[in-house]
Amino acid sequence: MVIRLDYDRVAMLNRFRQFWTKVITPIANLLLKLGVSADVVTLVGTVGVCAGALIFFPRGQLWLGVVVITCFVFSDLIDGHMARTSGTSSKWGSYLDSTLDRLGDGAVFGGLVLYYANSNAGDSTLMAAVTLWALVMGATTSYARAKAESLGLQASGGLAERADRLVAVLVIGFFSDVLNLPILLQIVLWALAIASTITVIQRSLSVRKQVLADPANAGLDTPPAPTEPPAEPDTKNTTE
């Protein structure tokens, strides 16, 4: 059953990517003709996401912030398509994209922290703390994977991956504001905080299991202990 669920999820994501690839292709091609680079699109998209989250969320304009953020989130698809189409995919582009993605995620959850900290908006110290915890654990989830991979291990999967967190908080945040049902956003933030914590634990246990399964490579570049050279044979004449 788990395998089937994983297969269905992958198939759904592939269909989602195929649909949006058809939508963004004309935009990406136009930007390339205008001489715009994929890195510029990545940077502009991140600035737009951060602006949408940090300008509108703290003031309680959640639905408007989500609309602005959503418009710029698609830059994450456009820049990748541009890089592949133009043949400019590189390690630098991948690094820049991943790094700025984390900055955008931090702005989204940070904006919600400020929303709940604002006495004229969310006005909830408890929810500000829960949202901050969701932000910290989301960042830790990404770091756990990156650190594991730097050690030659794997730490992917779990209850709450980056795409899951972002889609959930944006979609529910929008309807929470439009329908005037703040409880919806509160529920999803509690769920993300818990799910992200469980994901970090899952990834940590996975890494530990891999290390215990291969004790020969468990050391962190630790040089082997020096061994004593074999004793030289005694060639001294004992008849002296």
UniProtKB/TrEMBL annotation:
<feature type="binding site">
    <location>
        <position position="90"/>
    </location>
    <ligand>
        <name>a CDP-1,2-diacyl-sn-glycerol</name>
    </ligand>
</feature>
<keyword id="KW-0460">Magnesium</keyword>
<protein>
    <recommendedName>
        <fullName>Phosphatidylinositol phosphate synthase</fullName>
        <ecNumber>2.7.8.-</ecNumber>
    </recommendedName>
</protein>
<dbReference type="Pfam" id="PF01066">
    <property type="entry name" value="CDP-OH_P_transf"/>
</dbReference>
<feature type="transmembrane region" description="Helical">
    <location>
        <begin position="166"/>
        <end position="193"/>
    </location>
</feature>
<feature type="binding site">
    <location>
        <position position="79"/>
    </location>
    <ligand>
        <name>Mg(2+) 1</name>
    </ligand>
</feature>
<feature type="transmembrane region" description="Helical">
    <location>
        <begin position="124"/>
        <end position="145"/>
    </location>
</feature>
<dbReference type="InterPro" id="IPR043130">
    <property type="entry name" value="CDP-OH_PTrfase_TM_dom"/>
</dbReference>
<dbReference type="GO" id="GO:0005886">
    <property type="term" value="C:plasma membrane"/>
</dbReference>
<keyword id="KW-0472">Membrane</keyword>
<keyword id="KW-0479">Metal-binding</keyword>
<comment type="similarity">
    <text>Belongs to the CDP-alcohol phosphatidyltransferase class-I family.</text>
</comment>
<keyword id="KW-0808">Transferase</keyword>
<feature type="region of interest" description="Disordered">
    <location>
        <begin position="216"/>
        <end position="240"/>
    </location>
</feature>
<feature type="binding site">
    <location>
        <position position="76"/>
    </location>
    <ligand>
        <name>Mg(2+) 2</name>
    </ligand>
</feature>
<feature type="binding site">
    <location>
        <begin position="39"/>
        <end position="42"/>
    </location>
    <ligand>
        <name>a CDP-1,2-diacyl-sn-glycerol</name>
    </ligand>
</feature>
<feature type="transmembrane region" description="Helical">
    <location>
        <begin position="62"/>
        <end position="78"/>
    </location>
</feature>
<keyword id="KW-0812">Transmembrane</keyword>
<comment type="pathway">
    <text>Phospholipid metabolism; phosphatidylinositol phosphate biosynthesis.</text>
</comment>
<dbReference type="GO" id="GO:0008654">
    <property type="term" value="P:phospholipid biosynthetic process"/>
</dbReference>
<feature type="transmembrane region" description="Helical">
    <location>
        <begin position="30"/>
        <end position="56"/>
    </location>
</feature>
<dbReference type="InterPro" id="IPR048254">
    <property type="entry name" value="CDP_ALCOHOL_P_TRANSF_CS"/>
</dbReference>
<dbReference type="GO" id="GO:0016780">
    <property type="term" value="F:phosphotransferase activity, for other substituted phosphate groups"/>
</dbReference>
<keyword id="KW-0594">Phospholipid biosynthesis</keyword>
<feature type="binding site">
    <location>
        <position position="76"/>
    </location>
    <ligand>
        <name>Mg(2+) 1</name>
    </ligand>
</feature>
<dbReference type="GO" id="GO:0000287">
    <property type="term" value="F:magnesium ion binding"/>
</dbReference>
<dbReference type="InterPro" id="IPR044268">
    <property type="entry name" value="PIP_synthase_PgsA1"/>
</dbReference>
<keyword id="KW-1208">Phospholipid metabolism</keyword>
<feature type="active site" description="Proton acceptor">
    <location>
        <position position="101"/>
    </location>
</feature>
<dbReference type="InterPro" id="IPR000462">
    <property type="entry name" value="CDP-OH_P_trans"/>
</dbReference>
<feature type="binding site">
    <location>
        <position position="97"/>
    </location>
    <ligand>
        <name>Mg(2+) 2</name>
    </ligand>
</feature>
<comment type="pathway">
    <text>Lipid metabolism.</text>
</comment>
<feature type="binding site">
    <location>
        <position position="80"/>
    </location>
    <ligand>
        <name>a CDP-1,2-diacyl-sn-glycerol</name>
    </ligand>
</feature>
<comment type="subunit">
    <text>Homodimer.</text>
</comment>
<comment type="function">
    <text>Catalyzes the conjugation of the 1'-hydroxyl group of D-myo-inositol-3-phosphate (also named L-myo-inositol-1-phosphate) with a lipid tail of cytidine diphosphate diacylglycerol (CDP-DAG), forming phosphatidylinositol phosphate (PIP) and CMP. PIP is a precursor of phosphatidylinositol (PI) which is an essential lipid required for cell wall formation.</text>
</comment>
<feature type="binding site">
    <location>
        <position position="101"/>
    </location>
    <ligand>
        <name>Mg(2+) 2</name>
    </ligand>
</feature>
<keyword id="KW-1003">Cell membrane</keyword>
<feature type="binding site">
    <location>
        <position position="97"/>
    </location>
    <ligand>
        <name>Mg(2+) 1</name>
    </ligand>
</feature>
<feature type="binding site">
    <location>
        <position position="84"/>
    </location>
    <ligand>
        <name>a CDP-1,2-diacyl-sn-glycerol</name>
    </ligand>
</feature>
<feature type="compositionally biased region" description="Pro residues">
    <location>
        <begin position="223"/>
        <end position="232"/>
    </location>
</feature>
<keyword id="KW-0444">Lipid biosynthesis</keyword>
<keyword id="KW-0443">Lipid metabolism</keyword>
